[in-house]
Amino acid sequence: xxxxxxxxxxxxxxxxxxxxxxxxxxxxxxxxxxxxxxxxxxxxxxxxxxxxxxxxxxxxxxxxxxxxxxxxxxxxxxxxxxxxxxxxxxxxxxxxxxxxxxxxxxxxxxxxxxxxxxxxxxxxxxxxxxxxxxxxxxxxxxxxxxxxxxxxxxxxxxxxxxxxxxxxxxxxxxxxxxxxxxxxxxxxxxxxxxxxxxxxxxxxxxxxxxxxxxxxxxxxxxxxxxxxxxxxxxxxxxxxxxxxxxxxxxxxxxxxxxxxxxxxxxxxxxxxxxxxxxxxxxxxxxxxxxxxxxxxxxxxxxxxxxxxxxxxxxxxxxxxxxxxxxxxxxxxxxxxxxxxxxxxxxxxxxxxxxxxxxxxxxxxxxxxxxxxxxxxxxxxxxxxxxxxxxxxxxxxxxxxxxxxxxxxxxxxxxxxxxxxxxxxxxxxxxxxxxxxxxxxxxxxxxxxxxxxxxxxxxxxxx
Length: 462
Prior knowledge:
Layout: H1 2-22, H2 39-55, H3 62-75, E1 82-84, H4 86-95, E2 99-102, E3 105-110, E4 113-119, H5 124-127, E5 135-139, E6 142-143, H6 149-156, E7 163-169, E8 177-182, E9 184-187, E10 191-197, E11 200-205, H7 212-227, E12 233-237, H8 246-256, E13 262-268, E14 275-278, E15 305-309, H9 316-326, E16 331-334, E17 342-348, E18 354-363, E19 379-381, H10 388-394, E20 418-420, H11 444-461
Parallel strand pairs: 11-12, 12-15, 15-16, 16-19, 19-20
Antiparallel strand pairs: 1-18, 2-9, 3-4, 4-5, 5-6, 5-7, 7-8, 10-11, 13-14, 13-18, 17-18
């Protein structure tokens, strides 16, 4: 038995060493991590492994046990670290290009359930009314409790045209909500734009992808051609944008900021995790790619701007809002953002799998950590037509997630934001927006943004 136990300890040790090598771990570089191996804990791991192999009601493959152990290690760290098996790794690579099969929701884990961080616009989930903060408790007839996040995501994805039934718990609702969705090929158009009225443009970014910077330049060029003369004001809508690629956030920031100014910096335990990303081509362009920023209309760097945010604005959205706010390039309007100020790095393990590991916190140019805090708007404006249940759902932020990473810096003191009280919807009045209009007329926050831009124009003329 001792020989068998020793063999299992070596297996466990090998797994841990393999992960460490995949992460380019260096005990010399990190003095805090140096020290003897936790032999007792490894022995316990090996004993559990052996007991499962010998006593579990059904035979279990070694591969499955090891994968479950890795899953458990990562899931126990924070809501965003995860193990990606070969299929999940491929799906992630495809999704960053803007097309994949599934329902169209950004999700995490909370109390063993799948929590919706944000539905992605123009997807089956968005159209079915799935909301930020919803807890998915069943997928078809299978309870989610006990599933890993990867397993749950794998079940939600599938062949386009197939159906899946979600059972959802939502704050403010007395009983679970059951909704059946039809899977689709999710083709996310990350940038949408509209000339709302002469002189005033609207750009909405739904997610940060590999081509978001190029698409933004195309949108601004389209506004320039349609308006014929420089815009008087621009609204950049980042509401319910769950984030995405870091270089996409840098690209969007660089479009509006002076060349080479600091956009965001990150800090972690390894040298690779310590970065300063500026509005420079090397931080948003792919190798050998032409600089599409050269096509920007001349007025883009100086046009008065309002950035719209809310509780569904997370990660890369907060990088952009924080950079434009700190450099006083735009006024931030809306409600407190989600507060995801951590960086996840995809680390391939060499066998077609990978781990998504939280490797750093990111900081705005002024040195503020957004983690578990979020971006505080300069002007707080609630959405007038939102229901109480939706307010509660959108109130769910990073700080509410189990095992969230702590904020390591107190935010620098800032002036108290201006707060505008939203009017209550008139009874009997239909407040539903036209789903096809990206800038609906009854969008109270957007209307306030346009009014503010017009006020700025009046002051500039004096």
